[in-house]
Specification:
alpha+beta; single chain; about 30% strand; two-stranded antiparallel ribbon; 3 helices
Length: about 210
């Protein structure tokens, strides 16, 4: 039995559901992280745990729209854009210097076009720290098939054969406060098991990630 609610940190008194927030203190096995545990007592942690269910240690969650994280992400985007812009113009100058018959405008114009695309992509991916809250409205699943190459099953020429794999796709519909409905698909049911219809989530627009409120 767990000692503390991993959602709000209240003592559970060996109850299956937290008397303060209603969280299932003993969720199914597949909602636990495989490689993460508490740094103090080594207890396994459910996804999105705010507290250790055994010792009550509080964990710090840094949302994607945290100002420092936003600044770091945008700094990385600008650095990448500058790097590829410099590379594109450097290649243009090398081609111009190596080929006497090529006019400089024939190399600089494509480089400028490529640089423009780079900065447009940077502007689109620019982190604005926006999020929208929503309510879980539905769970459902469907069986699907995907194709992949099996390196252990080869043809006479040594090429890996393609094989079909069946899997279950779990989906959750969330009605956002702006009126849109967003569907989250994942092959692992763990995140969806912890999101019951009626519960609230926060959806971070740029990273397309969500977290239970």
């Amino acid at each position: 039995m767990t000692t503390f609610c991993y959602n709000c940190g209240a003592k559970t008194n060996d109850q299956k559901f937290c008397s303060y927030c209603g969280t299932d203190t003993q969720p199914p096995e597949d909602v636990y992280f495989v490689e993460e545990d508490c740094g103090d007592c080594d207890a396994r942690l459910p996804r999105w745990a705010n507290f250790c269910p055994e010792c009550g240690r509080k964990f710090g969650f840094i949302p994607p729209n945290d100002p420092k994280r936003v600044a770091k992400r945008n700094k990385g985007l600008v650095a990448g854009a500058i790097f590829f812009t410099v590379i594109s113009f450097a290649i243009a100058m090398v081609i111009f210097a190596a080929e006497d018959t090529v006019k400089i405008e024939y190399t600089l114009i494509p480089a400028a076009g490529f640089a423009l695309i780079i900065w447009l992509v940077t502007a689109i991916r620019w982190e604005r720290g926006k999020f929208v809250d929503g309510t879980v409205v539905r769970h459902y699943s469907e069986e699907r098939t995907t194709s992949r190459r099996d390196i252990n099953n080869t043809t006479m020429t040594g090429k890996a054969r393609r094989i079909d794999e069946h899997f279950t796709l779990y989906s959750t519909d969330v009605l956002l406060d702006n009126g849109r409905t967003e569907r989250f698909d994942i092959q692992c049911a763990a995140n969806h098991i912890q999101l019951q219809p009626g519960e609230r989530i926060r959806y971070y627009l740029s990273t397309r990630t969500y977290r239970k409120l």
